[in-house]
Amino acid sequence: MNERRPDTLPLWDDDEWHDGERRDGPGQADEPAPAPTPEWAHRLGVFDLETTGVDVAGDRIVTAHVGVLAADGTAISARTWLADPGVPIPAAASEVHGITTAHARASGRPAREVVAEIIDALRELFAQGIPVVAYNAPFDFSLLRHEALRHGIPPIDDPAPVIDPLVVDKRVDRFRKGKRTLEAVAQHYAVPLDGAHDASADATAAGRVAQAIASRFELPASALDLHAEQVGWAQEQSASLTEYLVRVGRLDPAEELDGSWPIR
Fold first, then answer.
1. Which end of the chain has fewer beta carbons closer than 10 Å to its terminal beta carbon, N or C?
2. What whole-number distance in Å separates Cα of residue 159 and Cα of residue 146?
3. What is the pLDDT of residues 192-206, one digit of tens each?
């Protein structure tokens, strides 16, 4: 597949898509040209969910974003959804993403329709070999899978290739101190993140962080090879975190964190 060909872009013609839209990239005009990056970083899918909570099996999708970034980080295709999750949105969740139960019920679309369209959009990208970036991928892809099963929609059981900047950043810069939230990592790589916990803003920032990491560190040239590497990296990171939490008394020695990736 030649990812540079314009006709490999998703041709979404829904009114909610903004094909060809050009937005400011993460850098400034007077910055030096970035170092050569792997071919997969020249065209990236991006994906993010905002939800009713953090339980991937029980919580529901409220908003979602799937898009495509060009090599310079500009968004060239994008779609955002607002769903009526069919359950009340807890106040704690509303405080994070700003969507109340009343707003979702009044303006959101039926959850089943939204879930089906998100899955179709992601399948289209994967079918073209376009890697999809999701920060902390097991959360978004696992929750999406449970939503699909809940609504009787065939799920994406083995999404690939996926790029998770959280896993990659922990691998390439493992001894850096500080938080590894999307906001903190975006700031570290000088990627603007305006409106954190908005699905569109978070997805776009995560994609640009992936591109920034690719321009700074040597990574596999193939997105599929990078995907395979992340499976092992995620397991190693989970084992290390398990050991730490047991050592500080925050996890029972008989317990073990699940390091499955990109779906748990």
1. N
2. 14
3. 998 889 999 999 999
Secondary structure, 3-state, the chain: CCCCCHHHCCCCCCCCCCCCCCCCCCCCCCCCCCCCCCHHHHEEEEEEEEECCCCCCCCCEEEEEEEEEECCCCEEEEEEEEEECCCCCCHHHHHHHCCCHHHHHHHCEEHHHHHHHHHHHHHHHHHCCCCEECCCHHHHHHHHHHHHHHCCCCCCCCCCCEECHHHHHHHHCCCCCCCCCHHHHHHHCCCCCCCCCCHHHHHHHHHHHHHHHHHHCCCCCCHHHHHHHHHHHHHHHHHHHHHHHHHCCCCCCCCCCCCCCCCC
Residue 20 has pLDDT above 90, yes or no: no
CA distance 197 to 65: 11
Average pLDDT over every residue of 115-134: 98
Using alpha carbons, list the distances in angstroms from residue 216 to 37, 131, 169.
Answer: 8, 19, 11
Q: What is the pLDDT of residue 97?
A: 97
What's the residue count for the chain?
Answer: 264
How many Å apart are CA 171 and CA 264, to the nearest integer? 20
- How many CB atoms lie under 10 A from the CB of residue 147? 27
Distance CA(187)–CA(15), nearest Å, equals 33
Work out the average pLDDT over 105-128. Answer: 98
Global confidence as pTM: 0.86
